[in-house]
Amino acid sequence: MSSGSQTDALPLLVYMSPPARLLERLEERDDLPRWFAHPIMKAGFRVRFREPGVSGGRQAHRLLRDGPLAQLFFSIGPGEVWAGLRLHRRAPVCTLYQSWPLDVMPLHKRLAYRLVFRRSAVIVVYDAISEHYVRIRFPDKPVVRLGLFVDTDYFTPGQRDPDCEPFVLCPGNHRRDERLIVEIARRLDVPVVRMFYSERVRRYYRENVHGNVALEDNVPFERVRTLYRDALAVMNVADDRFWPVGITTFCEALAMNKAIVTTAGHCSAGYEFPDGMRPYLTVKRHDDVGEWVGQMKVALNGGLAFEDGRSPRDLALAMCSEAAAVATWGRVKELLGSRARTGT
């Protein structure tokens, strides 16, 4: 599967085989937000996805017959290690690092990441903590920090439904402690709407009393946008101590201009205005119920006020919008393009 039609675009083999529901989001449709590959294509890459059932290395070998090629790795497995070792000179590698610290990985995984990082032409990260970590351990490698792309044309603020009962929105699937969320909800005066797409989360709420928590399970994107719009605030309860879990929720909430309380780890690290101002609240410990409740009450009682040009939406436009993502992927293309042409 390929996307993009520019004749002078740099072919980029993305080591993933996305399902049809994600490929639909590369089309210009009003009912779906655009997907992560959209700004990559706009930046001048001709995106090709790994064919299902075909090793990325074999596909890269075939594509190299037609001219220059770059490779984009998301996670590191045997196929990525092989392609990185054998093809990195002819098809330079961009590795998107959004994983555990190498020191806590199993030995085989740690070795795989180190081999690929050492042969990467550029390493891309989503947050400032990961950027610092990679720069310290691989000081000779170009590192580019990229704001997580959000379709800010789709996720646009609107007026709350006046007939909607007040609620706090708590989205997300991975590394969320449901017992923690239920306890926070119990101490708040406002119901919490738990939005998710996870069988693990679904099973928890089937088996446990959840009091002040209402459930929104597997909802379409229009409903996602409506829930963001109508929420009084967004509570991003995620254990992001090791990698930027929760970053999608965080950046979508910024785009929707919501009052946000989030963890102070990877998912929000570096998302600030040039002077360091952050238009959201954080908690230092992801599992501190008292701090969550205290910060949520500040957010719900109007404790977040912004000057013109300093709102959550303004930060999303500066860091997460199509324009911001295209500019950053343009820098990545420059780094990869020179290597792809020279084969060094």
Explained architecture:
- The protein is an alpha/beta fold.
- It folds into two domains: 2-149 and 321-342, Rossmann fold (3-Layer(aba) Sandwich), CATH 3.40.50; 168-319, Glycogen Phosphorylase B (Rossmann fold).
- It is built from 13 helices and 13 strands.
- A seven-stranded mixed sheet has the order 1-3-2-4-5-6-7, sandwiched between helices. Strands 10-9-8-11-12-13 form a six-stranded parallel sheet, sandwiched between helices.
- β8, α7 and β9 form a beta-alpha-beta unit.
- α7 crosses α11 (289-300).
- The radius of gyration is 21 Å and the shape is globular.
- From the helix content, strand content and strand pairing, which structural class follows? alpha/beta
Which oligomeric form is depicted?
single chain
In round numbers, the mean pLDDT is 92
**How many domains?**
2
Shape: globular
Tally of helical runs: 13
What is the CATH level 1 assignment of the largest domain?
Alpha Beta
The count of β-strands is: 13
Proportion of residues in extended strands: 15-25%
* Largest sheet: number of strands, sense, barrel closure: 7 strands, mixed
Radius of gyration (CA) equals: 21 Å
Percent range of helical residues: 25-40%
First and last CA, distance: 28 Å
Q: Strand order of the main beta sheet, please?
A: 1-3-2-4-5-6-7
- Look up the CATH topology of the largest domain: Rossmann fold
Order of helices and strands: EEHHEHEHEHEHEEHEHEHEHEEHHH
Low-confidence stretches: 1-5
CATH superfamily label of the largest domain: Glycogen Phosphorylase B
CATH architectural group of the largest domain: 3-Layer(aba) Sandwich
